[in-house]
Amino acid sequence: MTDRTPGAGIALVYRFNDDILSVERSGDRITLDVKSWRPLSFTPKAPAYADAVMALAGKGCTLRQFEAIGAASGDPAQAAKAARYYFERFARGRLLAWRIADGDNELARVDALADRYQPKLDDPPAAPLHLCRFAYLHRTEDGTVLESGLAPARMTLGDGGLHALAGTLARPRPAGQDAFAEALWRLGFLDVAAPTESEARRCWEFHDLLMHSASRQNRNFTRIGASYRFEKQFPSAPAAKPPVAGEAVDLPPVDAARIRQGSGALDAIQDRRKSIRSFADEPISLSALGEFLWRTCRTTAHVPSKTQDLLSRPYPAGGSINELEFYLAVSRCDGLEPAIYHYDSHGHRCIRIADSRAFAAQIVERSANAMGLGTGNQRPDVTIVITSRLPRLAWKYEGMAYRATLMNAGVVYHLMYLVATDMGLAGCANGTGDSRLLAEAAGLDPFEETAVAEFVLALPRTASAPS
Ligand SMILES: Cc1cc2nc3c(=O)[nH]c(=O)nc-3n(C[C@H](O)[C@H](O)[C@H](O)COP(=O)(O)O)c2cc1C
Fold first, then answer.
1. Which of 172, 179, 326, 384 has the least C-beta neighbours within 10 A?
2. Closest Cα to atom 10 of ligand 1
3. Is residue 279 left, alpha or beta, with left meaning phi > 0 and alpha meaning psi from -120 to 50?
4. Is the dihedral of CA 177, 178, 181, 182 positive or negative?
5. What mean pLDDT comes out for the span 193-204?
6. Residue 386: burial class (beta carbons within 10 Å; 0-12, 13-18, 19+)
7. Does position 274 have pLDDT exceeding 80, yes or no?
8. Which residues pair with 191 in a beta bridge?
């Protein structure tokens, strides 16, 4: 790697990161005082290598400078090997950080978000370099940052860095003609226009990889999990959703003892369970719909707490937060007029949302499309729209709220399938809903609550009846 390309003074500088509280040298023995670690001592093979390691303290040095200092040992090839060895070892413990410098001017600083991350050391491609399809620029509390679903690093750009980035993106050039582009390629943010990707990698879209890499503990230096980061700023949204305006419709009482007696054995239900997309001419009854909701979505306990009230329901839910809500888009049901209803899981009743009949029909029709039903096929009676009050979950869980809400919705799907099977109903999950229809019908603020999944319900068409 060249430190400087012709006409440019830009270089990628390696240094120990801020977790290294001090670097001491006694003879050739070096001791690093690393935050939350015991002191780390080692003796490099040659005094010149110790000199090179010491150059990583303070302002840092480029790879070429590190190699040149080590070459005073008398063997430049071994010094180059030593540079790679030390960078790899330090990267393992996430002890390094980087700067892109233009002379004394810092354009950007780069922090590793995971151990083992380090810039590429091989030769860059000869082709012009473009923004990698997994990279993105956004603002954080620290300023404007460049990140990527692929590279576990965060680059914070100053004004000079933003100018350089704009120039590099507007006029893609090979590394040999743009030292800033070379540094960004080494860091994992730039790539050739059409990189060779495996078939498997081609299948990953930008948002899939970002969510995957950012919402698990794949980046062990980002906060993922129960951090309660808003606890001192504002209270959690209440466990019980504030009442929805509209006419209340009581659901018929449910006889739990009768359900217990009539319910099939779990393995028999599992055996029979299937997605059913062929529906009867007769509509589902209000009592069947009510029993289904009671068995799948009712709230069974409210657990008050000083931090965040919790709920219990018939299905497990991350943190027992139970951020999911249930709406019924009813196109027909014996005992319930077509409309959208909110299921009040605490009072086991439905609240009819005014002027929502046309929206209900559209949601059900979308379900029909999602299930590939032809125009002549009987439509499902009801689409249950599952929404997420995501801020309740995000108030506790950092970095993983949307992941957790989808996992919770998956758990609900399975319970709905099992209960539908046990009750002899036709049920089918839908993975391609449109969150906007319910938002418009129910006047939801999508930041507060948004549809994340749908499940249709009706009576099944019997084998003898033509579809
Ligand atoms: C998350 C998820 C999303 C699904 N989305 C749809 C869908 O949009 N349309 C559809 O017809 N079936 C959908 N299904 C049903 C699957 O196609 C079905 O479960 C699968 O083909 C296996 O068949 P089985 O359920 O009869 O065992 C979905 C199932 C799940 C779990």
1. 172
2. 371
3. beta
4. positive
5. 97
6. buried
7. yes
8. 130
First to last CA, the chain: 69
Q: Is the CB of residue 455 below 6 angstroms from any atom belonging to ligand 1?
A: no
Closest residue to atom 3 of ligand 1, CA basis: 431
Using a 6 Å cutoff on CB, does residue 275 contact ligand 1? yes
Alpha carbon separation from 80 to 61, 298, 322 (Å, rounded): 14, 66, 56
In 3-state terms the chain splits into helix, strand, coil percentages (rounded to 5) of 35, 25, 40
Q: Is residue 310 over pLDDT 90?
A: yes
| 352-403 residue pLDDT tens | 999 999 999 999 999 999 999 999 999 999 999 999 999 999 999 999 999 9
- With a 6 Å cutoff on the Cβ, whether 61 touches ligand 1 is no
Q: Above 50 in pLDDT, residue 3?
A: no
DSSP 282: S
Q: Is the pLDDT of residue 4 over 60?
A: no
pLDDT digits (tens, 9 = 90+) for 71-110: 999 999 999 999 999 999 999 999 999 999 999 999 999 9
pLDDT at 464: 66
User: Of the candidates 18, 77, 23, which has an alpha carbon nearest to the alpha carbon of residue 51?
Assistant: 23
Dist. CA 430 → ligand 1 center (Å): 7
Q: Is 421 in the pocket of ligand 1 (CB under 6 A)?
A: no
Q: What is the DSSP string of 311-326?
A: EE-SS--GGG---EEE
Best probe residue, ligand 1, of 405, 430, 454 (max atoms within 8 Å of C-beta): 430
* 324 CA from centroid of ligand 1 (Å): 20
Q: Where are the domains of the chain?
A: 18-93, 106-222, 247-458
Question: pTM score, two decimals?
Answer: 0.94
Strand partners, 382: 330, 457
- DSSP for residue 242: P
* Cα dihedral: 457, 459, 463, 467 (round 10): -70
CB 284 within 8 A of CB 463: no
Q: Which two tokens stand for residue 422?
A: 């046990």
Distance separating alpha carbons of residues 452 and 462, to the nearest angstrom: 31
Residue 360 main-chain phi, psi, to 5 deg: -60, -45
- Please tell me if the CB atom of residue 418 comes closer than 6 angstroms to any atom of ligand 1: no
Q: Which amino acid is at 322?
A: N
Topology of domain 247-458 in CATH is NADH Oxidase (3.40.109)
Residue 276 Cα to ligand 1 middle (Å): 9
Which neighbouring-strand residues pair with 22? 33
